[in-house]
From TrEMBL:
PANTHER family reported for this sequence: PHOSPHOENOLPYRUVATE DIKINASE-RELATED, PYRUVATE, PHOSPHATE DIKINASE 1, CHLOROPLASTIC
Cofactor: Mg(2+)
Name by which UniProt lists this protein: Pyruvate, phosphate dikinase
UniProt KW DNA repair keyword: no
Listed transmembrane segments: none
Annotated EC: 2.7.9.1
InterPro entries the UniProt entry points to: ATP_grasp_subdomain_1, PEP-util_enz_mobile_dom, PEP_util_AS, PEP_util_C, PEP_util_CS, Phosphohistidine_dom_sf, PPDK_AMP/ATP-bd, Pyruvate_phosphate_dikinase
Domain (PEP-utilising enzyme C-terminal) ranges: 520-875
Species this chain originates from: Paenibacillus germinis
EC main group: transferase
Sequence ranges assigned to domain Pyruvate phosphate dikinase AMP/ATP-binding in this UniProt record: 16-52, 55-298, 301-349
Gene3D superfamilies: 1.20.80.30, ATP-grasp fold, A domain, ATP-grasp fold, B domain, Phosphoenolpyruvate-binding domains, Phosphohistidine domain, Pyruvate Phosphate Dikinase, domain 2
Annotated catalysed reactions: pyruvate + phosphate + ATP = phosphoenolpyruvate + AMP + diphosphate + H(+)
Family in the record: Belongs to the PEP-utilizing enzyme family.
Length: 877
């Protein structure tokens, strides 16, 4: 089986086999672009390697050797030859882009002999030994697992000795000495000498890249980006080109458009006389690409032309690595550039206008999970007084948090419920858990393409980087800026859009819709058939929902209206009433309150349906906690100063709460069960709804109430309650007005039995709304409150379940119930309206399922509406 593919034989469509990097190197080679020749070891080879217990087969070794021979011929150099050595890079390349997550080794093929050859050949000793020490550093770190700082320390000492600041100012003699130090370090740490045999170097490096697929940071990255573990990585072996050979050399990264605003401007950074990751590592602060135009005008023109060519070819913004060796340009990588949500939208809209993409392609391309960050908040400028420093605006958005200086503390504090900002001199892939835990990231070094910037943009987190005015002293847990000192735990605010670091916790304002988002949403609306409703419990939320494009309210939870401080006492009086009369009295006080809530909702949603769910939770949720009461009761019993009246009151309350206490309230007296046993509660709510409707109709508002009965499991439950709704509606509205109020009655399908008996239930229902939170809970038999954070996390970690089913709809199980109920219901009643209103309504995969199942709508929280509109369109495409 062929497990090695030369660049000239591959192409971009072979991503699964060659990895993204390999496939694109092949594609660029085919397009005639200047790519150093090389070959790719396939992902299949990687999987085979894992399968036999992390061992490279003889067959693969032979294939590699053969490809290498071919490469030697192409280059006119020989691997391991003392006079004319071929040097290669060994680069990881996964199928889905995972920038910086896995390992790459450069300058492989150098040893004590070949380094002399290289020096003689290039007439540049300093350069040759610089390459050699870099190889030892990368090899020591990636292959032998020696922590980077051991090498850094030795390097630092050398520079101090030579009295230089920059790596490129170290002398050839300096490098030679360092190489001896590195050799000792490697021997001391591993008990083995640095391998002089170049084929052994190669074999070990390939193995290490394969294994890096399973390193911790790669695993975490895959998990948060939902990349399957089974993909494996390809390995690219590529002949080296050198950006570190002197002042007519350099290396850099360009984006064909600005990745943080989306503007169609050439964007990037480079360093003269540097190699590989020098630019992204943030060791030296790089120059903006515009400077290349004056420094190397010809190279700049070539680079610009190649970039445009690639962008057209891939129909997307590209992120390109290049190196200049003695005034000759080479391209080392291209990929679709990471960008934040706003840039993604702008680029997609622009590409449609430029005629490169269709609207469908543009909509399809939007990463819906990234839309979240667009709908995030910005800083309230009025409040900004104290700007500590300004860095590069690497990833927009505002973040407020307490300052921490290392990733572990960030993770720890965030687990303890704090919001944190991670500040580092620069971040490395080892810091990723800290970045995940933080609201935003600040670095004092590194450019717009530094690790921190790339990772933060990918996660949609605000980031300010290269903020050289601040100096972080890790040991003291302090940050200095001029004469100012900021301590760990101090509050700061980052503005990733302007690069400002602001002292204190600034108030933030709500998100705004950009023009590009509005255009994209309009296109999505033209495409999609699935409607998007909102879950909204009050008029303010309804208003926001409508602004964001809601086509109705899919779930208004009436109990949320009961929790305000003025209402709760009345609700409690209603619950605690000893007789019906007292209960009715309390209810009559609640009625106008509910009525005004509903009026507000109807007015905001004028002309659109409003689905109101009658009271759902168990009553004790409105009462004081049982244990607290028992404590207070005991206290009062032994408190001599307490009056008899007080004691009697608390005893009464305690008895009531005890009486209402349930062993398993989620399965107890709640939902329609409550409404049937205490009809006066639902009666009041229904009356409030129709009185509100009546008032609104008088004011010319078009009302479309949809009354939803929760937790129905048997058709008779709905039958009784539907009769109640119809009765009250007619009582309140009278025959005439009823005609102006085309209301619906339906049920939530959230008990498995309801789904199974949909055929019976539909007789009394105008709509079914799948309450997928409860339906998931009851189908799996998982108590949500007990599952999340406990066994469920374990299950997902162990890959026993593909996802948390409370986040991503379990289409296989719960989905079957939905499908069954929709089909059974429609068979009896073709006009039946169907939708879902659980948390899943805002999840992309779940929305896809809803579309495929033929539901009429999904209902989600207001801020997820734009996301749902796009996802619904994507589902159609
Ligand atoms: P990553 O996936 O982390 O970007 P890469 O494989 O792209 O890792 O390589 C890391 C760095 O080394 C990049 O800057 C790349 O351009 C550089 N590099 C890789 N191969 C070569 C090569 N053959 N010649 C010169 N530089 C190279
Ligand atoms: Mg790398
Ligand atoms: Mg790269």
């Amino acid at each position: 089986q062929k497990q090695v593919v030369p660049f000239q034989e591959g192409n971009a469509s072979m991503k699964a086999l060659l990895g993204g990097k390999g496939a694109n190197l092949a594609e660029m080679t085919r397009a005639g672009l200047p790519v150093p020749p090389g070959f790719t070891i396939t992902t299949e080879a990687c999987l085979a390697f894992f399968k036999v217990g992390n061992r490279i087969s003889e067959d693969l070794l032979e294939q590699i050797a053969a490809a290498l021979k071919q490469l030697e011929k192409q280059k006119g150099q020989t691997f391991g030859d003392a006079n004319n050595p071929l040097l290669v890079s060994v680069r990881s390349g996964s199928v889905s882009s995972m920038p910086g997550m896995m390992d790459t080794i450069l300058n492989l093929g150098l040893n004590d002999l070949t380094v002399q050859g290289l020096a003689a050949l290039t007439n540049n000793e300093k350069f040759a030994y610089d390459c050699y020490r870099r190889l030892m550093q990368m090899f020591g770190n990636v292959v032998l697992g020696i922590e980077g700082y051991h090498f850094e320390q030795l390097l630092h000492r050398l520079k101090e000795k030579e009295g230089v600041v920059q790596d490129q100012d170290v002398t050839a003699e300096g490098w030679k000495g360092l190489i001896e130090d590195y050799k000792k370090c490697i021997l001391a740490k591993t008990g083995l000498a640095f391998p002089q045999h170049v084929y052994e170097q190669l074999r070990l490096a390939v193995e290490a890249v394969f294994k890096s697929w399973n390193n911790q940071r790669a695993q975490i990255y895959r998990k948060i980006n939902r990349i399957p573990d089974e993909q494996g990585t390809a390995v690219n072996i590529q002949s080296m080109v050198f950006g570190n050979m002197g002042s007519s050399c350099g290396t850099g990264v360009v984006f064909t458009r600005n990745p943080s605003t989306g503007e169609n401007t050439f964007f990037g950074e480079y360093l003269i006389n540097a190699q590989g990751e020098d630019v992204v590592a943030g060791i030296r602060t790089p120059l903006a690409i515009a400077a290349l135009k004056s420094e190397m005008p010809l190279i700049y023109e070539q680079l610009f032309a190649a970039s445009k060519q690639l962008e057209k070819h891939y129909k997307d913004m590209q992120d390109i690595e290049f190196t200049v060796e003695n005034n000759k340009l080479y391209l080392l990588q291209t990929r679709n550039g990471k960008r934040n949500a706003q840039a993604a939208l702008k680029i997609a809209v622009d590409l449609v206008h430029e005629g490169l993409l269709t609207k469908e392609e543009a909509v399809e391309r939007i990463e819906v999970s990234h839309l979240d960050q667009l709908l995030h908040r910005g800083i309230d400028e009025e409040a900004v007084k104290d700007v500590l420093a300004k860095g590069l605006p690497a990833s927009p958005g505002a973040a407020v948090g307490q300052l921490v200086f290392d990733a572990d503390t960030a993770a720890e504090w965030s687990r303890a419920g704090k919001t944190v900002i991670l500040a580092r001199n620069e971040t490395t892939p080892e810091d990723i858990h800290g970045v995940i835990a933080s609201e935003g990231v600040l670095t004092s070094r590194g450019g717009m393409t530094s690790h921190a910037a790339v990772v933060a943009r990918g996660m949609g987190k605000p980031c300010v980087c290269g903020c050289e005015e601040v100096r972080i002293v890790l040991d003291e847990k302090r940050m200095f800026a001029g004469s100012r000192v900021v301590e760990e735990g101090d509050w700061i605010t980052l503005d990733g859009a302007s690069g400002r670091v602001i002292i204190g916790a600034m108030p933030l304002h709500e998100a705004r819709m950009t023009d590009e988002l509005l255009i994209m949403l309009k296109w999505a609306d033209d495409i999609r058939t699935l409607k998007v409703y909102a879950n909204a419990d009050n008029p303010e939320d309804a208003k926001i929902a409508r602004q964001l494009g809601a086509q109705g309210i899919g779930l208004c939870r009436t109990e949320h209206m009961f929790f305000s401080p003025t209402r709760l006492p009345v609700v409690q009086r209603m619950i605690l009433a000893d007789n019906k009369e007292d209960r009715l009295q309390a209810l009559s006080q609640l009625l106008p309150m509910q009525q005004s809530d509903f009026e507000g909702m109807f007015e905001e949603m004028d002309g659109l349906p409003v689905t109101i769910r009658l009271l759902d939770p168990p009553l004790h949720e409105f009462l004081p906690n049982l244990e607290d009461l028992q404590k207070r009761h005991t206290e009062l019993t032994y408190n001599k100063d307490a009056s008899d009246l007080e004691r009697e009151e608390i005893a009464h309350l305690l008895r009531k709460v005890q009486a209402l206490h349930e062993a398993n309230p989620m399965l107890g007296q709640r939902g329609c069960r409550l409404g049937i046993v205490y009809p006066e509660i639902y009666d009041m709510q229904i009356e409030a709804i129709f009185r509100a409707a009546s008032g609104c109709i008088d004011r010319g508002v078009r009302v479309l109430p949809e009354i939803m009965i929760p937790l129905v499991g048997h058709a008779n439950e709905l039958k009784i309650l539907r009769e109640l709704v119809d009765f009250v509606a007619e009582q309140v509205l009278g025959k005439d007005k009823l005609r102006d109020c085309p209301y619906k009655v339906g049920t939530m399908i959230e008990v498995p039995r309801a789904a199974l008996t949909a055929r019976q239930i539909v007789a009394y229902a105008d709509f079914f709304s799948f309450g997928t939170n409860d339906l998931t809970q009851m189908t799996y038999g998982y108590s949500r409150d007990d599952a999340e954070g406990k066994f469920l996390t374990h299950y997902v970690d162990q890959k026993l379940l593909p996802h948390n089913p409370f986040q991503v709809l379990d289409t296989e199980g719960v989905g079957q119930l939905i499908d069954l109920a929709v089909n059974a219901g429609r068979l009896v009643k073709p006009s039946l309206k169907t939708g879902i209103c659980g948390e899943h309504g805002g999840d992309k995969e779940s929305i896809f399922f809803c579309h495929l199942t033929g539901l009429d709508y999904v209902s989600c929280s207001p801020y997820r509406i734009p996301l749902a509109r796009i996802a619904a369109a994507q589902a159609f495409i």
